[in-house]
Amino acid sequence: MLEWILALFYLLIVAIAGIIFLGYFWQWFYYKPTTQDQTIYFRADDGWRLALHHYKATNRTVGLPVILCHGLGANSGIFEIPGAPSLADFLKRHGRDVWVPDLRGSGMSDCPRLMHSDVPYSWGFEDHLRHDVPAIINRIMESTGSSGVHWVGHSMGGLLILAHVASHPAPNLASIIAMGSPTDFSKMNTEIFAPLLRLKPLFEKLPVSPLPLFGRLITPLAPWIPASAWGLFHQTNIEPSVARKVIALASTPLSAGKLWLDFGRFLNTGVFGPETGMPYLDNLHESNISILVIGGSKDLMAPPQAVSALCKRANSGLKADCLIMGKESGCLDDYGHVDLLVGIRAQNEIFPKILDWLEQHDKF
Predict the structure, then answer these.
(1) From residue 258, how far is each of 201, 302, 325 by CA, in Å?
(2) Where are the beta strands (DSSP E) in 88-192?
(3) Which of 80, 88, 91, 69 is nearest to 34 (CA)?
(4) Strands 290-296 and 255-256: what pairing?
(5) How far is it, in rounded angstroms, from Cα 43 to Cα 28?
(6) Which residue, 320, 349, 338, 322, is CA-closest to 175?
(7) The whole model's pTM is what?
(8) 204 exposed, middle or buried (CB, 10 Å; 0-12, 13-18, 19+)?
(9) 63-105: per-residue pLDDT in tens?
(10) Domains of the chain
(11) Whose CA is closest to 165, among 146, 148, 180, 140?
């Protein structure tokens, strides 16, 4: 009996080790050095060390600096996937000064480890909002001496800056672009998230979420998993090799269970807000900042109705424009969640619209 117990125990250890190895193997397999000119490390006001990647303008710098911020479970790599359109490189080649942060727990910023960590294992949306966002803006302002910055956020990266300006004076923000950011969770399709919502008891017990790591295990299958199950891509608008690289390079192996629980609460309640207090975007109309929201016509994670809800508010003070990218708006294909950044035609159909917006709002 004892032999069987020991055999099962060692088998479990080997299986866990194999999962971890395979998860990190794909990151190694697809790895290619990124092209940022420098990486700056600095600390948020609560002590977390954050990484900020700087892409200097290829020739003469024009306009205000641009911040590109990733979303939930991702890292700065989403803006520079090998072999895919790169928003960081596109803007750099058009004379923009580009800054790409890794939020806490992701990329080259402080991250928790499996067995031991120098940083807390748990953080949530509020930690990103209250500590990371102001620290990133302040550090870039100090480094550039610029009078202002633009913020382009994908998914959670867009939600963070919208929530920030709704509750804080933001005199240094010239404009905001939120890509694939669901501003009204009551309009989300919760069916696609049902399997994750059923994992709430697991997230409540584990300090970190292993979902991104397990997601890497199926990297080879990423392009062929049905969109209704995966939700990240519109399959016809992304190269299979790019879909695999997104999973392998742009996902963070371990992210905080608390952060996933926060988004579970947003989905369950339909309210994008803290556990107590008013919803994050209630006072957004008072910010007087120009906002562009960009959604994908076939985005299952942030459907068009949830993204465009911000533009349909009755508040006359809110300056928000909306673009839903797909065949109905003149694109050659429909767009999903991640292919807004790395889709086959993103460089021709989406990136120029972002550049035009930045040029129109360089003065404020």
Answers:
(1) 12, 21, 32
(2) 98-102, 149-154, 173-179
(3) 80
(4) unpaired
(5) 28
(6) 320
(7) 0.91
(8) exposed
(9) 999 999 999 989 999 999 999 999 999 999 999 999 999 999 9
(10) 49-137+150-360 (3.40.50.1820)
(11) 148
